[in-house]
């Protein structure tokens, strides 16, 4: 991660604790860690100290954690799904999805080097010793790496603008190689979590898949098919996970795995997805056959979506709780794709650790803060007695617990110095109410690893005096006074990169999709009117289900 500050930082003002209450504190940050916390305003005296004293209507939250995000898709526009599906394997191979999302992504990743040599060639030349050097495999690989960086920084910035400071690994899931981390912490780098290099977090897309030699029907006409008889085969990732568990979790310190993503039978009573139910049944059988199944208790396993589990069965709930298995809840994506989601209150009441995840731009929230606000709407609509403090924990303490109690998600001495500062409507408004009522235009700044990375321009001018780049005017009115300070070693030009991404997307949308008005999702949800309209539509879906 290219985010750090060589200067100590002192923050004085209202600070949120683990219960959501706020009190005046003074926080000292050094070398990316919280070194001391004092009650009241007690300024420290250190050389080169940066003092950040908050106004009465500002409050410090711990940086948010998002354990379910496919960040490489988060530059893409919202996908208009042609159906309400039973199971994830249906829409994944739907022709419309393949053309509008999957192929679109592959074009962005693979073809822009050849199609936009005018952009790539200067990058190659800057990486070579001789300007006239011909293109080689090495220089081309370097250029592709730079393009990946451009993509990665843009998607991470979208998260940072929403107060997120730790995400599931950037660019590609299910990759055990060394993945880049640019301006935010991610689970792909153990060092970012304060773990030894040998303690890896395994991000898994699938433990099982339909097959072999079977393609699920992907036409919208088959969206309500009974999937229970589909053949099932293990993905190699499942064997990797089982081997790690059997050997005392020596390979993976924690694992985050998609499982049983489909219709839950909760909002759509009596209509659970059959394949999803079988996924979890086979998962439990395989674990029970291990010589040392008790090692699962220390595997720090998190299940993403997990809609298809039979939560009416006490044995299922006991299995999750007793093996310390966490669940990531993504209600926006669940409702868009399946018009269903998990009975989250049942899980909480049974002592199961629940986190929130934004999923991805094609069918999810802009960032995990928006997912939290939708979760509030959902709980109120369904009359679930879940507090704002419990929802805050789902994006702070709970995901830190899921990752094996890493030192993140709270403002405590010795923890990572990751925060975001929110401007409330007034000094009298409570912090938790502000978190629900305000939007990402009200983020005063986001701090990662002790570095003020993003926020209002006046803060950078009057307090920080560091280099920064403005968010381009094309991103909308809420972004006009927002800036980002990106480590100079990244050699990243935000304006140029956004222009390039937009040019690529415009070409594919116009020439392939024949949708010339299609645009990239904007960085801030408060500036993205199409996105906000879509979220309101999801609320309409929910209201119709509850009639």
TrEMBL record:
<feature type="domain" description="Amidohydrolase-related">
    <location>
        <begin position="293"/>
        <end position="452"/>
    </location>
</feature>
<dbReference type="InterPro" id="IPR050287">
    <property type="entry name" value="MTA/SAH_deaminase"/>
</dbReference>
<dbReference type="InterPro" id="IPR032466">
    <property type="entry name" value="Metal_Hydrolase"/>
</dbReference>
<keyword id="KW-0378">Hydrolase</keyword>
<dbReference type="InterPro" id="IPR011059">
    <property type="entry name" value="Metal-dep_hydrolase_composite"/>
</dbReference>
<dbReference type="InterPro" id="IPR006680">
    <property type="entry name" value="Amidohydro-rel"/>
</dbReference>
<dbReference type="GO" id="GO:0016810">
    <property type="term" value="F:hydrolase activity, acting on carbon-nitrogen (but not peptide) bonds"/>
</dbReference>
<dbReference type="Pfam" id="PF01979">
    <property type="entry name" value="Amidohydro_1"/>
</dbReference>
<protein>
    <submittedName>
        <fullName>Amidohydrolase family protein</fullName>
    </submittedName>
</protein>
């Amino acid at each position: 991660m290219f985010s750090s500050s060589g200067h100590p930082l002192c923050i004085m003002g209202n600070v949120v604790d683990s219960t959501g209450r706020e009190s005046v504190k003074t926080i000292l940050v050094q070398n990316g860690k919280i070194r001391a916390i004092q009650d009241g305003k007690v300024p420290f005296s250190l050389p080169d100290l940066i003092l950040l004293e908050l106004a009465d209507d500002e409050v410090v939250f711990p940086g948010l954690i998002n354990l379910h995000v496919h960040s490489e898709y988060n530059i893409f526009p919202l996908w208009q799904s042609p159906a309400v599906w039973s199971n994830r394997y249906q829409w994944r191979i739907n022709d419309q999805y393949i053309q509008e999302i999957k192929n679109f992504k592959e074009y962005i990743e693979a073809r822009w080097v050849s199609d936009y040599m005018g952009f790539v060639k200067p990058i190659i030349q800057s990486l070579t010793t001789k300007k006239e050097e011909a293109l080689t495999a090495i220089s081309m690989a370097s250029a592709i790496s730079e393009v990946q960086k451009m993509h990665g920084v843009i998607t991470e910035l979208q998260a940072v603008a929403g107060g997120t400071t730790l995400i599931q690994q950037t660019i590609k899931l299910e990759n055990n190689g060394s993945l880049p981390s640019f301006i935010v912490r991610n689970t792909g780098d153990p060092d970012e979590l304060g773990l030894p290099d040998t303690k890896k977090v395994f991000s898994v897309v699938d433990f099982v898949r339909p097959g072999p030699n079977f393609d699920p029907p992907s036409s919208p006409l088959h969206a309500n098919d009974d999937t229970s008889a589909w053949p099932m085969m293990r993905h190699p990732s499942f064997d990797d996970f089982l081997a790690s568990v059997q050997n005392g979790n020596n390979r993976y310190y924690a694992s985050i795995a998609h499982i049983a993503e489909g219709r839950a039978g909760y909002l759509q009573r009596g209509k659970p997805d059959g394949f999803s139910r079988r996924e979890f049944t086979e998962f439990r059988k395989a674990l029970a056959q291990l010589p040392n199944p008790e090692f699962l208790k220390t595997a720090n396993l998190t299940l993403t979506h997990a809609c298809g589990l039979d939560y009416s069965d006490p044995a299922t709930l006991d299995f999750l709780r007793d093996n310390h298995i966490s669940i990531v809840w993504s209600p926006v994506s669940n409702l868009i794709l399946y018009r269903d989601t998990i009975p989250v209150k049942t899980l909480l009441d049974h002592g199961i650790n629940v986190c929130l995840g934004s999923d991805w731009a094609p069918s999810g929230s802009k960032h995990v803060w928006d997912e939290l606000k939708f979760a509030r709407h959902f709980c109120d609509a369904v009359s679930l007695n879940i507090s704002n403090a419990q929802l805050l924990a789902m994006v702070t303490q709970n995901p830190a617990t899921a990752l094996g109690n890493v030192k993140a998600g709270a403002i405590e001495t010795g923890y990572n110095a990751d925060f975001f500062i929110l401007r409330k409507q007034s000094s009298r408004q409570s912090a938790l109410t502000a978190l629900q009522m305000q939007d990402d235009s009200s983020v005063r700044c986001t701090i990662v690893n002790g570095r003020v990375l993003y926020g209002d321009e006046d803060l950078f001018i009057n307090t920080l005096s560091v280099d920064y780049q403005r968010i381009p005017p094309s991103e909308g009115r809420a972004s006009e006074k927002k800036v980002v300070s990106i480590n100079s070693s990244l050699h990243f030009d935000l304006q140029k990169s956004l222009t390039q991404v937009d040019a690529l997307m415009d070409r594919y949308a116009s020439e392939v999709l024949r949708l010339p008005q299609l645009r990239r999702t904007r960085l801030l949800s408060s500036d993205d009117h199409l996105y906000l309209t879509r979220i309101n539509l999801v609320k309409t879906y929910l209201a119709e289900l509850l009639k």
